[in-house]
Amino acid sequence: MKTRHYIIVAILSLNQCDSKNPFREEIDLKNREQTVQMELQRKKILEMKQVGCKLSPHIISKEDAIQNFLIELQKTPTANLKTLTSNDEDLGCIFPHTVGFGTALDFTPILEYQNLMQQRREMGLRTIREKIQNHPFKIKALSWEKPRNYNGIYGHKPSSLVISSNGKNHYLSEIKMVFEVNGTFKVGVLGN
Is the CB of residue 154 less than 8 Å from the CB of residue 148? Predict the structure, then answer.
């Protein structure tokens, strides 16, 4: 008898979940609004695209980009590194090329995305600094995934990076992406 009662309650509950449910309509409306906002954001990001964008300083290989980044990281106590993409480079060059490729930028408001990327950078910088400290280091192994083409700029993701420092080998997974723009390379994404 109880089983029949539960079945009847379940069937009645399912009947209440039709498309005219005010709660469902509210969710659908919010989803449509968010879709419109993200499309407007995408257009705004594409409008910020710099014609002939460049990365500075001019580093001619992805391996040199990582080497120079690690050297500068050891010497510079701040997060303001010339060998890491700047906010202007991100907004004018990197973001307009990578939007629409399934990154978090596609579904996260731009300010939220920038804050997220900044937090990831700070964590990555802190972790790498802890590993290499002020000791001399040498890159022991570096391999790459297949390059990703983002509308004319390329993303190079290290699949394995091992450095030797202070007599120990350290696996560095914090460098997530090196960007290539017109033959110039620069570390662009860090994380933990």
Answer: yes
pLDDT tens over the chain, length 192 residues: 555 555 655 565 555 555 567 777 777 766 676 666 666 666 666 666 666 788 888 899 999 999 999 999 999 887 789 999 998 899 888 988 888 888 888 888 888 889 999 999 999 999 999 998 888 999 999 999 999 999 889 999 999 999 998 889 999 999 999 999 999 999 999 998
Six-digit token pair at 137? 């280091």
Predicted TM-score (pTM) of the model is: 0.79
Separation between Cα atoms, residue 70 and residue 79, nearest integer Å: 12
Amino acid (1-letter code) at residue 29 = L
Q: In what order do the strands lie in the sheet with 148-150?
A: 148-150, 153-156, 175-181, 184-190
**95: three-class secondary structure by DSSP:** helix
